[in-house]
Amino acid sequence: MNKLDVVGKREPMLDAWEKATGRARFTDDLAFPGMLYGKILRSPLAHAKILHLDLTGAEKVTGVKGAIGGEDIPKKKYGIVPMAKDEYALAIGKVRYVGDEVAAVVATSLDAAEEALSKIQVDYEELPAVFDPVEAMQPGAPVIHEEVHNNVSASIRKEFGNVEKAFGESDFLFEDTFETQAVNHCPLEPQAALAVVDPSGKVTLYASTQIPFFLRRNLATTLDIPESKVRVIKPKVGGGFGQKIDLYAKDFCAAFFAMKTKKPVKFVYEREEVFTSTRQRHPMHIQLKTGMRKDGTILAQQFKVIADGGAYNSTAPLMITLACYFIMLPYRLENLLFEGYHVYTNKPVGGAMRGHGIPQVRFAVEAQLDHVAEKMGIDPLDLRLKNAFQAGAPHPAKLRVQTCGFSDTLKTAAKGIGWEEKRGKLPFGRGVGLAGASFPSGVSNMSHISSGAMVKIERDGSITLLTGAADIGQGAETVISQIVAEELGVPLEDIRITAADTEITPLDPGTFGSGVTLRAGNAAKIASQEAREKLFEAVAEKMEVNVKELEARNRRIYVKGSPERGMSFKEAIKFYQYSDRPMPIIGRGSYQPPAKEPTTLLKEDGNFSPAYSFMTQAAEVEVDTKTGKVKVLKMVASHDCGKAINPMLVEGQLEGSVVGGMGQALYEEVITEKGRVLNPSFLDYGIPTAMEAPSITSVEVETNDPEGPFGAKESGEGTQLAPAPAIINAIYDAIGVRFKTLPVTPEKILQALDEKKKE
Amino acid sequence: MRGKEVVVKRIITLNVNGEEFEFLTEVHRTLLEVLREDLGLTGTKRGCDLGTCGACTVLIEGKPYLSCLTLAADVQGKKIVTIEGLAQDGEPHPLQKAFVQKGAIQCGFCTPGMILMAKAFLDENPNPSEEEVKQAISGNICRCTGYTKIVEAILSLTHK
Amino acid sequence: MRLPKFEYLEPKTLQEAVRALASDAKRSVLLAGGTDLLVNMKHRVIEPKQVINLKTIPKLAYVKNVKDELRIGALATLHDLSSSRVIQERFPILSHVATKVGAYALQAMGTLGGNLCQGNRCRFYNQSAFWRGAKPPCYKAGGKLCHVVRKPGECHSTYCGDMAPVLIALEAQVRVVGPNGERVLSLSKLYSRDGKRPLSLRKGEILKEVLIPPPSGKTLYLKWRRRESIEFPIVSLALHIEKDGTEKIGKARIIFSAVGSGPVETIGAEEMLESSSLDNRTIERVSNQAAKEISPMRTSIYSPSYKRRMAGILLRQALENFQIPNPK
Ligand SMILES: Cc1cc2nc3c(=O)[nH]c(=O)nc-3n(C[C@H](O)[C@H](O)[C@H](O)COP(=O)(O)OP(=O)(O)OC[C@H]3O[C@@H](n4cnc5c(N)ncnc54)[C@H](O)[C@@H]3O)c2cc1C
Ligand code: SF4
Ligand code: FES
Ligand code: FES
Question: Residue A188 and residue B103: Cβ atoms within 8 Å?
Answer without folding.
Answer: no
